[in-house]
Every structure is written in C-alpha cells, then in structure tokens.
Amino acid sequence: MKRMTLILSLFFALNSFAGEQLFLQANSEYANDNYLTAISLYDSILTKGLESSKLYYNLGNCHYKTQDWANAIWHYEKSLQFDKNEKTLQNLELAKLKIIDRIEPLPQLFHKKWWNNLIQLLSTKTWQILALLFIWISLISKLIKQVNNSKKEYFSRFFITLALALLFITYSSFQENHTKKEAVIFTKTVIVNSAPTSNSTNLFPLHSGTKVVIIDIIGDWINIKIANGNSGWILHNSVKVL
Amino acid sequence: MKKLSVILFLLCSAVLQAQTLKVAADKNPAIVGEQILIQYTINTKGNNFKSPNFKGLRVLSGPNPSTQSSYSFVNGKSQNTSSTTYSFYIKAVKEGTYTISPASITVKGKKVQSKGYSLRVVKGSDKSKAQKKALSDNLFIKVNVGKRNIVVGEQILVTYKLFTRVDLHNTELTSLPALNGFWAKDLEASSRFKRDVVDGIAYNVATIKKSVLTAQKSGELIIDPMELKCSIRIQKKRNNRDPFANFFGGGYNVQEEFISSKAIKIKVADLPNPPANFKGAVGKMSIKSTVDNTSINANDAITYKLTITGTGNIELIEPLGIQFPEDFEVYDPKITDRIFEGGRKRSIKTFEYLLIPRYKGNYSIPSASLVVYNPKSKKYTTKKSTSHSLTILASKNNEQESGITNQQQVRTEQKDIHYIFTEGNLHTIKERVISPKLFYTLFFLPILLLILLGIYNKIVRKTDTPSSNWKNKKANKIALKRLKNAQNCINNNDFDGFFEEIEKSLWGYFADKFKVASADLSKETVSSYFQSSAIEDVIESKFIALLDECEFARYAPASNKNAQMDAVLSKAKNIIIEVETALK
Questions:
Q1: Nearest chain A residue to B465, by CA
Q2: Could you tell me the residue range of the domain that residue A35 belongs to?
Q3: What is the DSSP letter of B320?
Q4: B280-399 architecture in CATH?
Q5: Do both A56 and A27 map to the same domain?
Q6: What is the pLDDT of residues A126-149, one digit of tens each?
C-alpha cells in the first residue's frame, strides 16, 4: 500500500513536471508569435489533467492573438473562475470590445453591489476554510474553558458569530460561483427563440463571444439569460459551457 | 347622301389615324446577326415615349426620335400634318420568333399603345455564314493574360489586341470588360497599327487596351469580354456607268460589325496562412526610412520619410502603423507614388511624415516593418526599415519650457492585452471547492458539540458551587470600590474624615446589600439581617466590632494614627470580602 502511494505520488510529480516543461515551451512559442502551436501545447497540458488559472489566461491570450474572440473570452472567464486576477479582467474587457454584441448590464442596487464585492473578495474555497476555522476555534476555546474550569470566555461567542456570518457569505459565494452555470456562444449568429422549439417566435440575435447564464435545459435546448435581463431559448450546441 | 358618307368616312379615318402608334420593321423575317430597323410612327406630336421590351434581342441604338411635318395648301385650304418616328436598330443573336412588347406614347394626355410585334429571325444562308467566318478570321480581338493561376494581391497584365486584315474605317468600344474582383489600372496603349505575322498571315495589330489587374478576392474571377463596334469599308462593285465615282475612288459601303473577345477565367487562390501583421503586400519590395535631422530643437519639425520600392501591388499599400514617440505631434503622411506599369516595373511609394517633438530628450522611432508575400518563392518575408534615435534639444524660442513644466496626463488607456504568465502553477484538475456535504458536516459538527456542551453544563454542573477564587476577586473589587474614599483620606492624612468615611462605607455597603432603609440602620438590624442571610456569627461580630472601633477612634484618637488607619482599612476590606463571600 505504501509503495503504491509512493508510486502514485511520484507519477503525479513527474506529470506536473512534464506539464511545467510544456508550459514553458508553449510560452516560448507564444513569444515567437506561433500562437497556434502555443495553443496546441497548452491544450496538451489540459489533456494531462493539469490546469491553473494562469494556463487558461495564457490560452485566452493565444486565442486573442489569433482573433478567435469567442475562445479568448471563454478561456479568460475560465481563468477567472480560479482566480480574480486584475490582468485577466482587463484582457477580458479588451476581448469583449471585439465581439459584436454589446450588452449593457442591468444596474445593481448599491447594497447588492457591495455584497457581491464582498463575496468576490475571496474564492469560495477560502471562505469555506475561514468559516470552518472559526467554528472550530470557538469549539476549542469553549473546551479549554471547560477543562480549565475558568470563567474566562476566550472570545468564544465572538468566534461563533463570526463563523455564522462566514457561513452565510460562503453559502452566497457558492451559489454565485458554483451553482450558476454560464456559457459562451460559439456560433457566429444564433437567434434566441421564445420557446424551446425551432418554430417559435424569434426574439433577438446573439453573436459569438457573448456570455450567457444557463437557467434551464430541456433536451437540446437551453434557457439562457443575458446581462441586460433578457432571456430566451437557444440550441445547446451553439454554446460552450464554462 | 353619298357626299355626306364620304365626309364622315374621311373624318373617322382622320380621327382613327391620330390615335394609332404604328410599328414596322424593315425586314421580317430577318437573318441572324443582321441589323434590323424597327420604327414606331405616330402622326401627331406626342411625348413620353416608352420603349418596348426587346427581349432576347440586342438593341444597337435607339430610340432615335425624328419628327416630320408638312404643310400643304390645296385649293385654298391649308393642311398641317406632322408625324413622329422613333426608330431602333436591333440585332438578333439567335434564330427564333421574338415578341416585342407594345410601346406607348402620350398624346394630349392620352396614352396610346402600339401593337405587339412578332419578329421572326432565321438562320442566315451558308454564304452569309461563310462570310461571317471569313470576317472573324480577319477581324478579331485577342486577349493576352500573363498568368491564369494567381494569389490574392498578385498582379497580372492583360492586353487586348485587335487583329485585322480588313479595311477598318472606325472602331468604337461598346462595352468595357467588367472587372469584378479586380483592381484595375489602365496602362497607356498605343492604338497605332503595326504589322504582325501570325501563322504566316500578316495582320494589322493594334493594342486597344492594356491593364494591370490586381486580384482583390479569391475564387474563380472572370474577365468579361470586351465588345468592339467596327465599321468596315467594303468597296462597291465597280460601276462602269459612273466614271466620276470611279475617278474619286468613292463607292464604299460601310458595314458595321460587332466583335467581342472571349471571357477569361482567372483562378485566384487565397494567400497561404497569412501572418497576423500581413497587410496584403504582394510582390517583391524593400523598405527604407530616412530622417532629415537627428538632432533638433524641440518644437521644430522633423521629416520622416518611409520609402517602399519594388514591384507588386505597391499602389495599394496603406500607411504602415509606425509607433512614433508619444510626445511627438504627428501629422497625416503625405503619400507620393511613382508607379510604373501599375507596379509591374520598379515603382516607388513614399510616406512623408511631419513630426514635431514637443519636449527635449532622447527618443527613438522604431523600425517600420512590412510583411511581403512573394508569389514566386511563395514565402512571406518581413522587411524592416532602420530605427532612428533622435536627440531633441531644449526649445530655443519657447522659454516656457524651462520655467513651467507642461504637465501631461499620463495615458492609461490600454491598447493591447497583457503578456502571458510565465509560471504555470499547474495543479491537477479537481473541484475548486470543498464539497458542500463535507463542508456542512464539518461546520455543524462543532455547533452540535457546542450545544451538547451547553446542555451538559446546564444539567450536570448546575449544583456545583462556583469556584471561590473567582468569587473572591469580585468581592475584593466591591470592597475596594466602597473604600475608595477612605483610601483618599489616608493619602490626605485626614484622620477624622477617614473614620467617618469607613463608617459611612460600611453602613452604605450594608444598606445596599440587604436593602435596608437608612432610617432603620442600627447594630440590631445588622445582626438580624446577618442571621437571616445565614452568615456566621464570627463575621457578624467582626463587622460590629469594626463599627465600634471606628466610633471609638473618632472620639479617642490613638497615638499612632497612621498605623491605626491602615489597620482599620484592611479590616474593613476583609470584612466586606468575607460578607460578600458568605452571601454567595
């Protein structure tokens, strides 16, 4: 058993080492403007079962350079799922300028904006860890108090309150980042229908590179919502899910 | 009666005549390729003539209106007649029966329509065909194309040559080739006839048109035929009866013939994998840049000249994006070109930029690069000009610069994406969150434990006396608070005040603790309340003894006042602590 784990860990180490090698190789291809080769090298890292926000960011850059805006946006969005990097956000903004659809997002109420900013401050995982940390600290402090037979509170109530607040934030963050399914349109032009049938009323067209939120799936059709609040049905194969 | 009917008939016919638009052809049936004259005649003046639809027939000319009017004076009666004729010259290309739709004209506000006309066209006799054949052998246009398989942006030279062996009187271009998908540049062509021998037959050859075509899109592009109207002089047969005609050499018939060139298909291929910065330059070019002055005062002008020389579609090259230093004022370039043979011969195109540096310092103009596709070697090459470093000295006539610095807003607008990350930080693909099940278990387990602990404390440890240690501390605090004023008195050496204060504090403490009204305060009440609260007798007696001592000390002060004060203070403290502890 021990040997097995050793071999496994060794394999992973080798694998990630090879991945890093490929990454560096792809970087040099990018530097020499060979974007297509760089893309295939980066993709081969993905097929090795390795990923990172930086890998997706670099892939986004490659696709941007080859003027494949939809793919660039998809990869930047993917990178943002791991890490909210300022560079990624700015590149994404630039890529969004290149696509056809310009959607004005609905204005948000200030408290909602603040709440969202707070939630996005840390990743869901970090929030989860913080919440768990504080609840265990409060338990431990309570136990210390019990054992020592002391009257001291050791801030245990403060920790419990904090942990509960963090639980709430974690829940919201999870809802926002992990239950909300998003996708990017890859078909050049897609007509949004009012119902999941091809003969229903055509509502509005969308073009490749636009990000949509998936609300529902029925067969081949998905119910999507765009940033300005409009929604409708499009075929599942016209998008790539993030 | 007879007279009357005649008059009536005449009137009627006159009225009827005025209302018709007659149509007639000079020959029906006609022969293929023959010129046919179709005339529409109306015997009044009309306007707004609408031409018929000659479907399938080629209109050579028309409508040509002509008006005739005649005025006759017969037997004292004047008569004025006028007629208008619209004539068309048409030509049939194929045999068959053609229906010409009715034409219409407006006469005095009334629309008059002609009848439809049916025209039969038959094949010419063999003789006329043979004639045609002979003619096409002797008069034709030949198109020369340099290359039939090209790439987008490549140039080809197309020459239209007229070969003739007949006596040409006049030529007229009737339709120019439509060059869809090409950018055409006409070259000067000398239309003088030269003698040329083809297959042993001498022709008079003239170059009618010469153009350089640059393919603008890929696919199969067609150079449409060019049509030429030729007037051929044919000498009439000698008419022996007219010596004058023979003498003047006259007697020519002019025959009009239409000849056209063949349509030519050109296959245009897409450029293979153009690099990102390829702007469509195809050919063989080189690039050079010059600066007229590398060291100059600020606010003086510099001329930066970029010259592209070579062959190819030089004329179509747009100004190259050169990243001039931000502090330079750059004006739109002056573009001059000297293109020879549409770029097939060595041509020059120059972009002249006027730059005005605003601030002193060392700047550099980076090299401009031009990606050129060479169709011969089928390769892309990047031509780069030299980069120039400029030294800008302080402005001579602008004293402002040294005194007040002209501050500039730093340009923050982002133009290109950020560079890639150089480190991967790769990790295996896994869930990016702790699974909700695990998370909630880990979160609610401590909460559950906390609740259980609370319940345990409530049930099991309820009867346990709280630890004396903690209680003592609290009692001590209370005592200190009560005796604060007394402490102050010690510090001030106020002997009388001290004992009064101690007494007051003790009584105050007692009154507060057992909720006794100040009127009821006496030593008896103390013992009764102490007993009811199950406080030991020792404490009670100590308390009363202390009160007594205070009273006594006030009236009979001891010799060592300070020592007594300290002793009493500590006693008071102790008694309060003891009562406090006993009460809990």
A1: A149
A2: 2-98
A3: P
A4: Sandwich (2.60)
A5: yes
A6: 888 998 888 888 888 888 877 776
